[in-house]
């Protein structure tokens, strides 16, 4: 791994650790979602997430307010990813299917960090394999970088000269609610069943089961 990639990972971990320390400093009555947290990975909503402007699968420009209208699972990756992204998004999709069966409608979102190759049409094909409600988002390189910075994610292209280039990137899934932003961060070790249970707990604590327009 090159020095740039290593530096990015260190900065990302520092942000997540800072968010975890924030949660540990809060009193029991200050965190409305305390009973839903595992304590493994945490994030302060004031530090993780934020405004973004991107392009959806139809080519329309959307903002975070258009996308996060209810419980939302957000993952940053790319459709040409050979292993991690398909597995993580399949896990997220399965968790959403389990939540659908329990009456919770959660929106799974896939934000591409590869705007040079991930067109809206390609994203629609990728997300269509995962879940009928999964939303793919792309944008200009500047828009994607801004969204990545807002969520403290990391990505680095290995070799732009290679048409089959790979991208090193973080692999967290973010649970966000409207007006609150990110309330939890899930790692790769989370099973679909565990994720569904945790998301349901957060949704119940939020006291809202919103229906997405998609």
Descriptive overview:
The protein has one domain: Glutaredoxin (3-Layer(aba) Sandwich), CATH 3.40.30. The N terminus and C terminus are likely disordered. Strands 2-1-5-4-3-8-9 form a seven-stranded mixed β-sheet. It has a two-stranded antiparallel sheet with strand order 6-7. 38% of the residues lie in helices and 19% in strands. Helix 3 packs across helix 6. With 214 residues, the protein is an alpha+beta fold.
Give the SSE map.
Layout: H1 3-25, E1 53-56, E2 61-63, H2 64-67, E3 72-77, H3 84-101, E4 107-112, H4 120-130, E5 135-138, H5 141-150, E6 155-157, E7 167-169, E8 173-177, E9 181-186, H6 192-206
Parallel strand pairs: 3-4, 4-5
Antiparallel strand pairs: 1-2, 1-5, 3-8, 6-7, 8-9
Helix pairs in contact: 3-6
What's this entry about, in short?
The protein has 214 residues and is of the alpha+beta class. The protein is 38% helix and 19% strand.
